[in-house]
Design brief:
Elements (H helix, E strand, L loop, with lengths): L1 E6 L3 E8 L2 E9 L8 H15 L7 E6 L5 H14 L4 E6 H10 L4 E6 L3 E6 L4 E3 L5 H4 L5 H13 L5 H11 L3 H9 L4 H6 L2 H6 L4 H17 L12 E4 L1 H5 L1 H10 L4 E5 L3 H10 L1
Parallel strand pairs: 1-4, 4-5, 6-9, 9-10
Antiparallel strand pairs: 1-2, 2-3, 6-7, 7-8
Helix pairs in contact: 1-2, 3-13, 5-10, 10-12
C-alpha cells in the first residue's frame, strides 16, 4: 500500500494506492511543522489512521506538506509519521513541489498556492528551479486567506469597515476586540483564525469593499511573488487552493493586468498528484 499525503495548515488528505490504482482517501487535521511537533502529529492523527487503514501494510509514503521547507522541518514530519508507520519508506517534500507536480505535470511553468497561505515557484517539469520565499503569515502570504482575513480584521478593529458590513460581521461572529487579539496573540493556529474570515469576504464578494480587498491582495501577490521570476510572463501561472478557486474571476483579471496567462486552477491537488505518482 502506498500513501500520497497532501497536508496544509488546516487539513490533511490521505490518498491510498494499491496495485497501481487509486483506492480511496480520508481526511485528518492539518500538519505544519512550524506549529506542530512530532508528538502532535502522532497524537492528532493516529485514531483517524487506525479507523481507515492497516498501518502495518503501508510500504511507501509520499508526504507533501505546508512548512516542509527545510531539512529540520521535514524531519519533524518524518519522525511523527515514522512512529505511526514503522514499516514504510517515507519521503517528505514541501507542498510547493506537490503543487507543481499536480498543476504542471512534466511541463515547465509557474505554480502558485493560494489557500490559507500563499506560495509560488518556477518549475522546469521535474523540480523547482526558483522560489520567491513566502515568509509565512506574519511577513508574507500575500493573496492567501490569511492575508485577506487579516486585511478585513484590521479594518474591523480600526472601524474602517463600511457600516453595513460591520453590522453583518458583528451579527455573524459576535467577537470583541479582546477576543480577536487573544486568538491572534495567545491561542494556537492564529493563521487559521485569520484565514477563516475569508468566508465572510466570499459571502459578500458583490460588495465593492470585499471585491477590492481580494483584488488588492492578489495584486500584491503578483508584485511580491510572481513578477519576481525571470521572464515570468512567458509562462502560464497554474494555481491551487480554495482562495484561487473561489476568487478565480478576480485572479484572472489581476493576472491580465500583470500580463500573465492563467492555466489550470484547482481547489485540491490530490487527484492530479495521484495521477503523477501513478505515471512516474
Amino acid at each position: 500500500m502506498i500513501l500520497v499525503i497532501d497536508s496544509g495548515s488546516t487539513k490533511t488528505e490521505w490518498s491510498i494506492i494499491e496495485n497501481n490504482r487509486f483506492i480511496s482517501s480520508f481526511r485528518s487535521g492539518g500538519i505544519n511543522p512550524y506549529f506542530h511537533n512530532d508528538d502532535y502529529i502522532y497524537n492528532n492523527n493516529i485514531n483517524s489512521i487506525n479507523q481507515n487503514i492497516d498501518r502495518k501494510v503501508v510500504s511507501e509514503i509520499f508526504f507533501y506538506g505546508a512548512g516542509c521547507s527545510s531539512e529540520s522541518k521535514c524531519n519533524i514530519v518524518f519522525k511523527g509519521l515514522a512512529r505511526i508507520f514503522e514499516n514504510a519508506k517515507i519521503e517528505v517534500y514541501h507542498d510547493l513541489l506537490g503543487a507543481a507536480r499536480a498543476l504542471c505535470g512534466s511541463k515547465a511553468g509557474i505554480a502558485g498556492i493560494l489557500g490559507t497561505g500563499s506560495n509560488s515557484c518556477k518549475y522546469d517539469g521535474v523540480d523547482i528551479v526558483e522560489n520567491v520565499k513566502s515568509l509565512g503569515y506574519f511577513f508574507g502570504d500575500e493573496g492567501g486567506g490569511v492575508h485577506i482575513g487579516k486585511t478585513l480584521i484590521i479594518d474591523f478593529l480600526k472601524n474602517n469597515l463600511p457600516i453595513d458590513l460591520r453590522k453583518d460581521f458583528i451579527c455573524k461572529y459576535n467577537l470583541s476586540i479582546e477576543d480577536i487579539l487573544d486568538s491572534v496573540y495567545n491561542k494556537t493556529n492564529p493563521n487559521k483564525f485569520l484565514a477563516s474570515f475569508t468566508l465572510f469576504v466570499k459571502d459578500n464578494i458583490n460588495n465593492e469593499y470585499c471585491y477590492d480587498i481580494v483584488e488588492k491582495c492578489f495584486d500584491l501577490y503578483f508584485k511580491e511573488q510572481i513578477s519576481q521570476y525571470f521572464e515570468y510572463n512567458k509562462y502560464e501561472l497554474n494555481c491551487l487552493g480554495s482562495v484561487a478557486y473561489n476568487f478565480k474571476d478576480i485572479l484572472n483579471i489581476v493576472a491580465k493586468k500583470h500580463n500573465v496567462k492563467l492555466g489550470k486552477i484547482i481547489i485540491n491537488p490530490n487527484q492530479d498528484l495521484i495521477g503523477y505518482h501513478l505515471n512516474i
